[in-house]
Every structure is written in structure tokens, then in C-alpha cells.
Amino acid sequence: MRRLVKGCAIIFAVSLGLTSCKDKPKQELETDLAIAENIAEPDVYEFGFNLNDFIVKRDTVKSGDSFGQILERNNIGFSKIYKIAEKTRDSFDIRKIQIGKPYTLLCAKDSLETPKCFIYQPNKEEYVVVNFQDSIHAYTSRKPIKYVEKEYSGIIKSNISQTLADDGLSLILAYKMSDIYAWTIDFTRLQKGDRFKVIYTDKYIDDTIYAGIEKIKAAYFLHNTEPFYAFEYETDTVNGTVDFYNEEAKTLRRAFLKAPVEYKRISSRFNLNRKLALYGNRVRAHKGTDFAASIGTPIVATANGVVTKSSYTGGNGNYVKIRHNKVYETQYLHMQKRKVKVGDFVKQGDVIGWVGMTGHTTGPHVCYRFWKNGVQVDPFKQKLPAAEPISEDLKDNYLQYIKPIKIQMDAIPLLEGNKLEEEQNLITQAY
Ligand SMILES: [Zn+2]
Q1: Quick check: 376 pLDDT over 90?
Q2: Percent of the chain beyond pLDDT 90?
Q3: Domain ranges for the chain
Q4: Neighbouring C-beta atoms of residue 292, cutoff 10 Å
Q5: How does pLDDT run across 133-187, given as a tens digit for each residue?
Q6: What is the Å distance from ligand 1's center to 375 Cα?
């Protein structure tokens, strides 16, 4: 019966859509709508439930709230709350609900409005359902995510962030672009009139909530009249390693980042003859480079590798050591906290810990140690190798893969310097 009624509602809706206001007097239209509403509300699905089956109460976790208090306020007895907590504790830690996060109660459509489900949203994408409708159970799920590919063409007036901001685009796009070209183009020295194009993917949650840029598929930079192509390519499907290569399959990266942290200053350089007043001006070689940064700043692996040490000593404090290949290792000292363990595979740029001042140190910094063939050297004096070239067996695949993308890229018009004003806003297009 219900299904049939719903069918009528749909037919109503369709006929409303087809007959425009011009054909029908306004009065009549409203009557139709009223009838449709009386027959059945349209189904609204969220969190995998038909919300029409419940009274929906939405709120956010307030200061002093606990899972128990929220349910108690909504007429669930203590023994039931205890049972729910017990039965779901392997899948949901109720102590982890945080102030300010949204939650939804799905309640029975009766006079008591007894809650049947508690849904907690730790972030925009995930939600935890604690279902105590029949059998008590909890699970974490994700909202549907939609990706939309977009193209953009821009021209540098002062810097890339400004150009993108002027067009209402995310700064993240600027960061990602400067990341891709970190070793090929000096973004602090872009020329006015440099032009660039980018094909990227925007991410939306539940079709509507903008959730940022997922990835850059390809980029093109015309810097000093020289073109620089960059295509994203997954070189290791197991570890999900992606990298950028140019139209000839050459890497755009060096093997190592210049620094493991966004630092304020270099407080002490690699110096085998350093003399310290603290030690009566005797030579205490400093075999690291100290990057001063605030406590809690993320420390990243400067290159891909495998964690060989993650531990604590009185001198080093919390530290991590990574082996990158037969020749190179890096080590990061005085961390507040470590994020990786021995055996972990880390990619360049992955967070491995946070700046602290554990061990022998007088201020928060990362002491970055760079090993070449088992000997500590000054990374700034090294001619660092280019990142791993694409492997021979992947190269043909890569060239095949980028063919249509390059055609797509070349078809995006470059902005002309003199048409700057009028075209700036025209080219962003979704499809
Ligand atoms: Zn140091």
C-alpha cells in the first residue's frame, strides 16, 4: 500500500515538473503540492536509514556531555545504557565522543520518542552508528563521496596563490602545485605572465559538502616560456605510491626533501668542529642540522623508506631512523611523540612524529641526521640524487596512460597575457 501511495507522489512530482507555471494558475499548483504532501513524504535517506521512519533529533556534543548522559536525557534507562556500552565497546569507544561534534538520534515515532539509534560524526566523512533498535550493535561507515574533475587555466600576476585566490580556488591547489614543481620551478621567482593549467579532482561528501581537492591529475607550467608538464602516476599499487613525471617519463622530484619540518630557522648546522661553551669550549662535533620549530609541528620523512628505529634514549629523546636504500639513511631526534614503528614503510612527506624537546636539547627543534654509507654527512653539501626514475617495465604503461591526458591538457586554452582581465574567470569548468 505504502509503495503505491509513494508512486502517486512521484507522478504528482513529475507532472508538476512538466507543466510550467505558465500553463497552470498558481493557485492550482499549490493545491497539487498540498495533496502530494498529504499522500506521503518523499523518502530521505541518511546514514543508511530512511529518516521518515523516525523522529530525527540532531545536536552536537556539549561540554560535560557523555554518551550516557545524552541517552539518559532522552529517556533511556541506566541499565540499557550500560548494556549498549558493553555490547558495542569493541566497535565504538563511547569515551571518544568529542565536544562540538554532531550527533543524531533516531527515535521511535510514538509518544515516548524512545531513541533507537545514536549516530556520531567524528568528521565530515565518517559516521558511527550505535544501533539498539533490536540487537545492539555498532559500526563505522562513510558518507558517499563524489569526485568531480575540473580544469583550470591561470596566469601569474604576482604569485600562484594570489592567482588562484582571485578565482575563488582553494589555496591547497597552490600548495599542491608548488609541491609538484618543488624541484623544477622556484615558486618564489615566478615571472609575471607565467601561465599554468591544471586538471584536478574536487571532492564532495553526500553530493553537496565541498571537501577539498582530492588530487591533481596533471599540471602544465609555462615558466620563462619553457613548458613543464607533470602527470600523476601510481608506481606502486600495493603501497599506493604516486609520483609526478613529465611527458618523457622523467621524474620531477629529488629523492630527498630539503628539510623534515616547516622550520622557523636553522639553529645549528652540521659542523664537525663545533665548540660549545657548555663543554669548556671543547670540540663537540655536531653531526646534524637543527631545524627550530614549535612543539607539535609535524615532522615528515624526507624520502621514501623503511623505519629501522623508533625508540627513546637519554640523549636523542624520542627518535626515528629510516633506511631509504643501500646508501642513505636519515634520523630525526628530540621528538615530542613518534608516529611510526620499526618496519613501517613511509613515503616522502609522511608524518613520522612531532617536534618536541625530549633528550638533550635546550629548545624545541628537530636534529636531522643524514647518513651516507653509514657515515653522517651534511645533507646541504650533498649532490642529492634524483628520485627513483620510473622503472623500465612501467615506462611504456606510463606513456600510454598519459597520452589522452596530455591531449586533454593541450586542449585547455592558455590564457593570453593581453586578454588577462576578461578571460581570467571563464575557464573554470566542471564536466
Ligand atoms: Zn642537533
Answers
A1: yes
A2: 48
A3: 2-39, 45-142, 146-253+404-430, 265-381
A4: 17
A5: 888 999 999 888 889 999 999 999 888 888 999 998 888 888 888 888 877 777 7
A6: 16
Cβ count near 141 (within 10 Å): 12
Measured between its terminal Cα atoms, the distance across the chain in Å is 40
In 3-state terms, what secondary structure has residue 14? helix
* CA 260, chain centre distance (Å): 19
Separation between Cα atoms, residue 132 and residue 135, nearest integer Å: 6
- Amino acid in position 78: F
Give distance in angstroms: CA of 354 to centre of ligand 1: 16
Ligand 1: distance of its center to the CA of 268 in Å?
7
Q: How far is Cα 329 from Cα 332, in angstroms, rounded to an integer?
A: 10
CB 59 within 8 A of CB 100: no
* C-alpha to C-alpha distance for 312 and 336, rounded to whole angstroms: 11
Question: How many residues can be counted in the chain?
Answer: 431
Q: Residue 356 Cα, ligand 1 centroid: separation in angstroms?
A: 13
Secondary-structure class of domain 146-253+404-430 per CATH: alpha beta
Q: Tell me the C-alpha to C-alpha distance, in Å, between residue 262 and each of 62, 183, 218, 361, 413.
A: 35, 17, 26, 19, 36
User: Higher confidence at residue 157 or residue 319?
Assistant: 319
Angle between helices 26-39 and 2-18 (to 10 degrees): 160
Distance in Å, CA 256 to ligand 1 centroid? 19
Contact (Cβ atoms closer than 8 angstroms) between residue 325 and residue 279? no
Of the CA atoms within 13 Å of residue 367, those in its CB half-sphere come to 21
Collapsed DSSP state (helix, strand, coil) of residue 242: strand
State in Å: Cα 365 to ligand 1 middle.
8
pLDDT band at residue 280 under the 50/70/90 scheme: low
Q: Is 3.40.50.1370 the CATH classification of the domain at 265-381?
A: no
* Phi, psi dihedrals of residue 357, rounded to the nearest 5°: -145, 45
Q: Judge whether 45-142 and 265-381 match in fold.
A: no
The class (CATH top level) of 45-142 is alpha beta
Ligand 1 center to residue 289 CA distance, Å? 6
Q: pTM for the full model?
A: 0.53
Nearest C-alpha neighbor of 216 from the set 170, 253, 157: 170
Q: Determine the pLDDT at residue 182.
A: 74
Bridge partners of 313? 317
- In the numeric block, the cell 562540538 is attached to 100
Neighbours of 103 (CB within 10 A): 20
